[in-house]
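Collaborator request, handled under Task 6.
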Amino acid sequence: METNRVNEIKKLIAGDLLSIGAVFLDPDKPFTWASGILSPIYCDNRLTLTAPKVRNDVENAIAETVKREFPEAEVLMGTSTAGIAHAAIAAHILGMPMGYVRSGNKDHGRQNRIEGKLEAGQKVVVIEDLISTAGSAIEVVDALREAGAEVLGIVSIFTYGMKKGLDRLKEANVKNISLSDFDTTVALAAETGYIRKEDTERLIAFRNDPADQRWIKR
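Structure tokens returned to the collaborator:
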């Protein structure tokens, strides 16, 4: 029953993200990432904040996931900047405290990196919008651990499911639960005619190895 609900959420959020262009797929006109890699997918989950119905689905799903996967959680901590609003809204739904972690220490005042009250030993769940290579999310986890928090894991809106990201999370001993993922989104996009069914193989080839750009010519 629980597995069915998880899959239901994955498909719901995938449909939501596609419907507002927060996830955009175009294997014939790839986007260029900062690293120079060409990608058939572009993701901007900030768009969920300006789409009330989608935002409602996302925040309720985050709250539900925190309760299901991390029932001992005491504090939600958003990643700066994309995870802050989601952490705040989900914390409001759950009646929990929240804060956020800056990408670096402030250069003024108390020079905080962690904003909001956090006590040593508190059980924390990190709220992130997107997991790709997982580098920035793990930096947030490290900062919280250094501050004495017990990080139970991460709840993210979307993940590419790339091997590099999965390996980094495993190495850092971090559990990530994403509301939706690349494979679910690609399958739904093909099912609904958003992309051609024959493009599914190209997209999965990209997911398996983003550096191998042979998928472009298939």
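The cover message to the collaborator said: "The mean pLDDT is 93. The radius of gyration is 18 Å. Please let us know whether this matches your experimental observations."
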